[in-house]
Amino acid sequence: MFEVRDYSHRKSIKLINTTCIICLRDFKIPKTNKGQIITCCAYCSSVAITLRKVKGSYYLCSMCDKAIFRTPNKVSNVERVYCSKTCANLGWKHLSIRRGIGKKYYGSNWLEQRRRCRDRDNYRCVDCGITENEYEKEMSVHHVIPFVYFSDYKEANKLSNLVSVCEDCHRVRHSGEGHPSKFNVNKIVTHYTPTVKMQQKEKAQEVYSLLINTDKTLAEISRETGMSYSGVRRIYCGKRWKTLYKVPANITNRRRCLRD
């Protein structure tokens, strides 16, 4: 028999009465834990953990639509649920999800093209033949050539690249070689605007170009590009953005004011 948790030895802590949610025994807990779900012993705690696991739900992976089981404490946002770390990385890096929280953005014409595709396929799954009336929900619309391979959403959403499928058949199409983890990374095109870091890199390239092609001082380059003097100096000395050059500017075009 497991012993009931005892906090009486802590003289400085105020205790209050509570009831174990598993065995309904009364025991005392610190007042600071009021409102929390606390069990009386290790056994009841293990039972509670098992019950929480059982009370989970099935979700579709936001990337590949695979059905996965998750407990409530494992799902913070139902719009972003991934079956694996690979799908999570692909979902964050390669899909345009800037518009709408966690929703895949397929361009401004997506909803219209989706409706046209379902109408063209007579609201029927092209793989198994089930209709929307029998399925009791709308068909999913699948990109034959993955959307992430296109730089223009209008090309990706052409009707010739879309087919209507039920969710079961959709998951089959996204399994095996069709799984997003099998996508050719070299063909993937990102659809979101450049990040701040990319803009900083472009400015760093401009600074380095001025450093090696002109005799302007570091202060003049700083004022012209808007980069701080310390930032310009670190690029000049080869201590920042080292991927932009093989030889630092202080070797290829050393400034007179800094010569020994």
Key features of this structure:
alpha+beta; two-stranded antiparallel ribbon; 10 helices; 10% strand; flat
Short description:
Among the domains are: 38 residues, no CATH class; 77 residues, no CATH class; 63 residues. Helices cover 33% and strands 10% of the residues.
Write the layout of secondary structure elements.
Blueprint: E1 15-19, E2 26-30, H1 42-54, E3 57-60, E4 67-70, H2 85-93, H3 110-120, H4 132-135, E5 140-143, H5 153-156, E6 162-165, H6 167-173, H7 196-213, H8 218-225, H9 229-236, H10 249-252
Antiparallel strand pairs: 1-2, 3-4, 5-6
Helix pairs in contact: 7-8, 8-9
Task: Describe the structure in your own words.
By secondary structure, the protein is an alpha+beta fold. Among the domains are: 15-52, no CATH class; 106-182, no CATH class; 196-258. It is 33% helix and 10% strand. It is built from ten helices and six strands. It has helices spanning 42-54, 85-93, 110-120, 132-135, 153-156, 167-173, 196-213, 218-225, 229-236, 249-252; strands spanning 15-19, 26-30, 57-60, 67-70, 140-143, 162-165. It has a two-stranded antiparallel sheet with strand order 1-2. Strands 3-4 form a two-stranded antiparallel ribbon. Helix 7 runs antiparallel to helix 8 and helix 8 (218-225) crosses helix 9 (229-236). The protein starts with 14 loop residues before the first strand and ends in an 8-residue tail after the last helix. Mean pLDDT is 78; it is low at 96-102.
